[in-house]
């Protein structure tokens, strides 16, 4: 279901599948819709997808954003929880 605040829903979904947070995916999708993806692609740094993070890095990020039950999660569960947050 399309969200009114997301200007490029397809790009948003691709970014979420890649592991980007909801906020980052929305920012990129909206910026590329208004400025063009070529211009947006040249801006900023690049962060690896959650799949490329170590379990310790995922645990730290989950702790930062307050995901409960993280201590009993395996890596794939942490990735799923972070993506859905």
TrEMBL record:
Renumbered to this chain, the Basic and acidic residues biased-composition regions fall at 1-26
Region ranges (Disordered): 1-57
Quote the Pfam families the UniProt record gives. DUF7218
Q: Which domain of life is it from?
A: Bacteria
UniProt protein name: Rho termination factor
User: Which species expresses this protein natively?
Assistant: Actinomadura rugatobispora
